[in-house]
Amino acid sequence: MLQFDEETTRVLEDAYQGADVTRRRRASFDALAPVPGDRILDLGCGNGLLTEELARAVGPLGHVTGLDASPDMLSAARQRLMGRENTSLTESDAASLPFDPESFTKAVSVQVFEYITSRRPVLRAVHKVLKPGGRLVIGDMHFDTFAWHSDNTARMQRFLEIWDNHLAERAVPARLPEELPDCGFEVVSMRPVTICDTSLRPDGLAAVMIRLIRAYAVQTGATDEDDAAAWAQEQEELAAEGRFFFSLTHFVCTARRV
After folding, report:
1. Any idea what DSSP says for residue 106?
2. What is the rounded CA–CA span in Å between residue 131 and residue 224?
3. Are residues 44 and 110 in contact, defined by beta-carbon separation less than 8 angstroms?
4. pLDDT for 188-242, tens place per residue?
5. Ramachandran region, residue 190 (left: φ > 0; alpha: ψ -120 to 50; beta: rest)
6. What are residue 85's phi and psi, to 5 degrees?
7. Measured between alpha carbons, how far is 162 from 155 in angstroms, rounded to an integer?
8. I need a surface site. Which of 19, 65, 148, 232 has the fewest CB within 10 A?
9. How far apart are the C-alpha atoms of 27 and 110, rounded to whole Å?
10. Whole-structure pTM over 0.85, yes or no?
């Protein structure tokens, strides 16, 4: 588990509310199409940003339940949702949903399934708690779409392979068309949201990934601090020279419970 210092925590919060991650979250929001009175499950709600946005959309007649396995994330979400009576938070893993059958009209998950090794049990659990015809939206990265420029391509490839080790599945969007029908869902659409940064924006996805990958590589013993610092420093230098390039595609899959 990564340990974050105060500065990295601040950068993370900026990135969560920055344009890149906001676009990803908004794409899932739009695919879910919340309406007044909806009862929505936010699976892997994290710090509650999407939960809060959905709560505003469903209004006082609706309800949004955020579920996460991390007490720290739920603590942040609890602070964010304070005073919103149409929300609740539950600590649980994704395959053990402690809800009655057909409790929700819709469910959404953003960047969660790429950390789940066995996705079918989770999909079946979501199927059980959704009403017939209920909508499921899953947003995850396809890491085969990664394009990240470096003058030291061998080192860049090594760091991306190190980062792969923190994932359970690097190509979730490519797996879902097979897995969803197996679990009682019909795939309705698959839409790409491509993040492209040529300036290393301070609130962008690339900036936060540089910090996370550097920390992960060192904390897991995959490399030393000097090597990780040199890798990160090159990206700063490329940006200063106007040669920075980063691109990664997030996919939003919409499915219907049958």
Report:
1. E
2. 50
3. yes
4. 999 999 999 999 998 899 999 999 999 999 999 999 999 999 999 999 999 999 9
5. beta
6. -75, -15
7. 11
8. 19
9. 10
10. yes
- Residue 171 has what DSSP assignment? B
**Spatial CA neighbour of 109 closest among 257, 255, 258:** 255
Cβ proximity of 147 and 247 under 8 Å: yes
What does each C-alpha distance from 182 to 107, 122, 176, 185 come to in angstroms?
Answer: 18, 12, 10, 7
Name the residue among 141, 256, 131 with its Cα closest to residue 194: 141
| pLDDT tens figures, 110-154 | 999 999 999 999 999 999 999 999 999 999 999 999 999 999 999
Q: What is the DSSP letter of 32?
A: H
**What is 181-244 written as a DSSP string?**
HHTTEEEEEEEEEEEEESS--TTSHHHHHHHHHHHHHHHTTSS-HHHHHHHHHHHHHHHHTT--
d(CA 233, CA 229): 6
Amino acid of residue 198: T
Could you give the CA distance from residue 91 to residue 256 in angstroms, rounded to a whole number?
A: 25
Q: Are 148 and 155 in contact (CB under 8 A)?
A: no
